[in-house]
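Re-run with default settings, no changes from the original entry. Doing this only to confirm the output is reproducible before filing.
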Amino acid sequence: MRPQPEIICLGAHEWRIRPLTLAQVQAIEPILMATQDAKGQGNVASAMAIVSIALSRDHAPVAESLSEIEATAPELAAAMTSVLRLGGFIETQAGASDALGESEADAIISTGPSA
């Protein structure tokens, strides 16, 4: 089933993000692979890059100035989780909560993924 658009929120801002294009998925994949190789390191920069890729199609000015937005690490983790879900990197089962995958995203941001 094709994912439905999601709203991501960072600080006082929110944006509607459509399911990702194959080009966006292709751009995100190496970031995820590099994050896996950086075991035990925080990776806010990777999360920002992933969210920026998703914003670039419909919200290009925001994507270019994402680092200027006041937001917390948990907000960034939730936004990245939504993006990864829209790209098919995180599966959402029927009836699953919107929080599915947030612990995985938190792990990428705070400590890097486990092997």
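Residues 42-90+97-115 form one domain. The chain is about 50% helix and 10% strand.
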